[in-house]
Amino acid sequence: MKLLDIPFNDRRRRYLVVHPDGLSNQLAFSSTTTTQAFEALGSSRFFVSQDQKILAKVVPDKFPRRQAPLKWLLRDYLEKRWLGQTDARKEYRSLQVLRRAGLATPRCYGWGVSLNPGNHNGSLLLMEHVQNAQPGGEVFNKLDEQGRLAFLERFCLEVARLAGAGYAHRDLHYDNLLIDKNGDILWIDTHVRRLPTKSADQWPALKRSLTVTKLRGEAYHSLAETRLHALFIGDESAASHRG
Ligand SMILES: Nc1ncnc2c1ncn2[C@@H]1O[C@H](COP(=O)(O)OP(=O)(O)O)[C@@H](O)[C@H]1O
Ligand SMILES: [Mg+2]
Questions:
Q1: Domains, the chain, ranges and CATH?
Q2: Ligand 2 centre and the CA of 243: distance in Å?
Q3: What is the number of the ligand 1 atom nearest to the C-alpha of 133?
Q4: Binding site membership of 176 for ligand 1 (Cβ less than 6 Å)
Q5: CA distance 118 to 172
Q6: Neighbours of ion ligand 2 (CB under 5 A)
Q7: Torsion sign (Cα): 161, 162, 163, 164
Q8: pLDDT tens track of the chain, all 243 residues?
Q9: Which helix (H) or strand (E) holds 2?
C-alpha cells in the first residue's frame, strides 16, 4: 500500500493506493481531448499521466453530500470507501478474474481510495493507457455485415471462455472493450459476477448478460445467444465427460 499525493489538473488529491505496481511518487495527471472523448463514452472521469502511459479512471460519489447527507455517508463514504466497495477495487478484481480466464486486459498499476470526505472522487483505478486502440462500438459500426459476424464470433468465444472460468460479465457492450492495433480484443470496463453454482441456473444467468440494446439489435443478440449457448453447453458436456 502506498499513500500518494497526486495532482489532477494541478489540484492535489491524496489516495491510498493498494497493490501499487511500478508507480513513481512524481505522478501527475491532467485532462486532455483524449480523456474528454473517453468520458463521452461512459460515466467515469479520466485523466492521463504526463508521459501518456497511465490512465486514471475516477468514479465520483453517487449521492451529493449536501443534498443527501445520510445516503452519502452510509453508501458513498462508509460502505464504498471504508468497507472496500469502491468501483476501482471491484474493477481491479474483475480484471484479475479476466486475466486468469485467459482474456487480455490493459495492465493495472493499482487501485486507490480517498478517505478525505471533501474529495468526492473517492475511487481511483490506475491502468495502462492503451495507445492506438479503438472502442469496440466504433469498430463494430464501421464493419460490413460479414465483418460484424466475425467480430461477434470472437466476442462470443471470449465471453464463453470467461463463463467456462465461472463468471458472467455484468455490462456486456462493445464500448467496454477495445480493439488494439493488432486487431485483438482488450477488455476494459469489467465488472463480473460469479455464475450460480447450480449448473441448471448457469445458462439462464449467462443468457441474461446478453441484451438487445447492448448488442445493437435483435439479429446480433439472437446470433450471440445461439453461439454462446453452443459454446457454453458444449464446454459443460466436455467438462462432465472429463470429470
Ligand atoms: N485503459 C484504457 N486505454 C485506452 N482507452 C481506454 C482505457 N480505458 C477506457 N478507455 C476508453 O474510455 C472509454 C470509457 O471507458 P470505461 O472504462 O468503459 O468507462 P465507464 O466506466 O465510464 O463506462 C472506453 O470506451 C475506451 O474508449
Ligand atoms: Mg463502460
A1: 2-128 (no CATH), 134-242 (1.10.510.10)
A2: 37
A3: 4
A4: yes
A5: 33
A6: 42, 176, 189
A7: positive
A8: 888 888 888 889 999 999 988 888 888 999 999 999 999 988 899 999 999 999 999 999 999 999 999 999 999 999 999 999 999 999 999 999 999 999 999 999 999 999 999 999 999 999 999 999 999 999 999 999 999 999 999 999 999 999 999 999 999 999 999 999 999 999 999 999 999 999 999 999 999 999 999 999 999 999 999 999 999 988 555 455 444
A9: strand 2-8
